[in-house]
Amino acid sequence: MLRAGQLRYVAASIVLMTLQPLLVNLSKNEDGKLDYNPVSSTLTTEVFKLLLSITLYYANNNNNNRLPMSPDAMENMMYAIPAVIYFINNNLTFFTLQYIDATTWQLLSQLKTVFTALLFRYFLGRQLTVLQYLAIWQLACGTATGQIPKCTEEMAKGDYSDRKFSGFMFGSMLTVLSCLLSAVGGLYSEKLLKAKATESIHLQNAILYSWGVLFNIVGTVYHDPEVFEDGLFKGYNFWAVTVVINNALNGLAISAILKYADNIARVYAHACAMIVTMLLSTVLFNETPTPQLALAVLMVSASALQYNLKQEQLLALGTSASPKYTTSALSFSPSASPSKRTDGYGEDEEELELGERPQ
Fold first, then answer.
1. How far apart (Å, rounded) are the C-alpha atoms in residues 227 and 230?
2. b/e burial code for range 83-107 (CB count within 10 A of at least 16 → b)
3. pTM recorded for the entire structure
4. What pLDDT score was predicted for residue 343?
């Protein structure tokens, strides 16, 4: 279970991720289009995250008159790896959408949740239980189910008569690769942030976002160089500015989740935010609730409960139903002592304070 110190970061990220699509919608003009360039918004967000991190670091280290870097230059270079991964992944998305439609891309993108769980043990040395793996698979299915109404509308508008099967398969493979890169980037970022538990998260963010700004400038010059010619803030309105601020704050919240909780908490926060956004859209934009939305809410909620359910609680549920309850496949037996949890949230493990490195 998430502790109070971790829960506040997860809750903040859910709120900020929920607001993101709503603010983007409000930033559109009367014709439903954006007057500003999304590429400039992404670059501005990265710069703002860097400035926020530096400001927060100085605010918490008043005795320092400069921003120190790690004495190990190679260690600082390691922070470039997730920036490179995200840079490749963002460009891969542009390339992928040339071969497959947005419908297929949306549904296959949910595999990033599954890859995150599968690589969780490899990167961080933490093993999940069978029930937790099943819960994460259920989470991926639940979020994909929530996309069905939108995907159905897009498919109805599309013309797939000329689609080549080879191109479709190639695009699907690229999407799977994109999901893998996304999972690796998130897990590697978590590993970096937790590598030095006593080091300021704001300093770590400053180094990480410095690389992010650099690669975003490279991407902007490559994809949309006219952004610098026309002006970085061309077409911005009040809501466009709130989009930048919201995304920057969300980036800081996600970094806190990765340092003080883990990537699994991040994917659950993203899923919850997606569901809340869908629910709010039915109220704010008069969208019709669908059975798929209700099913998605139930699946995501059940998945979250299943993932955080402790083995002793499962034993209690089993023994209350039947005194002779056993499950040999999962090694649950009321007569046996509950096995120690290995996901980092068990009661048998020593509670960690914020910033303390897990053993």
1. 5
2. bebbbebbebeeebeebbbebbbbb
3. 0.77
4. 42
